[in-house]
Design brief:
This protein is α/β, with parallel strands linked by helices. It has helices at about 20-35, 40-50, 75-90, 105-120, 120-125, 180-185, 210-220, 245-250, 260-270, 275, 285-295, 300-310; strands spanning about 15, 50-55, 60, 65-70, 95-100, 140-145, 150-155, 165-170, 195-200, 230-235. The protein contains 12 helices and 10 strands. The strands form 2 sheets. Strands 1-10-4-9-8-5-7-6 form an 8-stranded mixed beta sheet, sandwiched between helices. Strands 2-3 form a two-stranded antiparallel sheet. It is globular and about 55 Å long.
């Protein structure tokens, strides 16, 4: 019987500062106790996000206070956000803000975090404040007795005003705008733990997004202007034909685990090239050129990408 082929577990780009991973290990152990199992690539990213070092006063602080992840859709970045939220709330008493571009994404992540706490054993449910005894679903936050808290918000121009937190989580970061960044970043400047962290995670930009903030941050990290920025990216360096199965496995770490090969094959046959980029990352250096051309010419990102494909493939 042929060995089952699995997605590449190592990111093409993997920049990070080393640190002690005990906090990530504790979080993973807790999640596995409640049947939430991370794949090897997800554990690798969580080790980066939750690595800690001791400061001059012996206090644990983040080794990577600013982090970013880019991986194609349906590979499981939601599980990483859930892990980061649960670990931060329970083990650090953190105040977190989780944000996303789409209402449905925020609703789904909030539901899954709520389910973790509501369906857990007494050792976990007893951590919740009394207002969660009835397991409410309508509140836009979840809170623990010792101060751990996560607020769930859809991103807007003023979405962060009036909030203070320790950690800012930005899902669907390919949609983040300068105005949203301006509203959200100050929310972690005076966090209670005095140990702030910002984590962005998203997918390759599509025809409806320009990735203004994400591409700027990514470029600064890779150009050496922000050497301490932690970034993991599953992508191909150059554009490839959408029927290239090696590229599918190279850029989709969950392919063969829960991401189905048959579904990717169907998408490759039926989707336009630009739409399929959500399943197989295009070459990010070329994508940067495409986005710049889109802004300068006013042509759609889809049309620009198709032109690049004709020239470069």
């Amino acid at each position: 019987m042929a060995k089952k082929r699995l997605g590449n577990q190592k990111p093409r780009i993997d920049h990070y500062n080393n640190g002690d991973v005990w906090l990530a290990v504790k979080t993973i152990d807790l999640l596995e106790k409640y049947d939430l199992h991370l794949l090897p690539w997800q554990k690798t990213v969580l080790y980066r996000w939750m690595a800690v070092i001791e400061d001059d006063e012996g206090k644990w602080i983040w080794a990577n206070p600013d982090a970013g992840l880019s991986v194609p859709r349906q590979n499981g970045k939601t599980e990483l956000f859930i892990a980061r939220i649960v670990g931060g709330m329970i083990f650090l008493n953190e105040a977190l803000i989780y944000t996303a571009h789409a209402d449905k994404t925020v609703t789904e992540v909030k539901r899954r975090v709520q389910n973790f706490f509501y369906n857990a054993k007494k050792e976990i449910t007893d951590l919740l404040t009394p207002e969660f005894d009835s397991k409410p679903r309508t509140l836009d936050y979840i809170e623990l007795m010792d101060g751990g808290r996560c607020v769930f918000r859809t991103r807007t121009r003023t979405g962060g005003l009036g909030n203070t937190s320790d950690t800012l989580l930005l899902d669907e970061c390919q949609e983040e705008t300068d105005a949203q960044q301006e509203a959200l970043l100050p929310t972690i400047a005076a966090g209670r733990n005095q140990n702030s962290q910002t984590i962005r995670a998203g997918t390759p930009p599509t025809s409806g997004s320009t990735a203004t903030v994400w591409l700027r941050i990514r470029d600064a990290a890779l150009d050496g202007k922000a050497p301490d920025y932690c970034i993991q990216e599953w992508s191909v360096e150059n554009l490839v034909d959408k029927t290239d199965k090696d590229a599918w496995y190279y850029t989709n770490p969950s392919l063969g685990y829960f991401l189905q090969l048959r579904r990717v094959e169907t998408e490759a046959k039926q989707m336009a090239d630009d739409s399929f980029n959500k399943c197989v990352c295009v070459g990010m250096p070329v994508l940067k050129i495409c986005v710049l051309l889109t802004r300068r010419t006013g042509r759609s990102l889809q049309l620009i990408k198709l032109t690049c494909l004709k020239i470069l493939v």
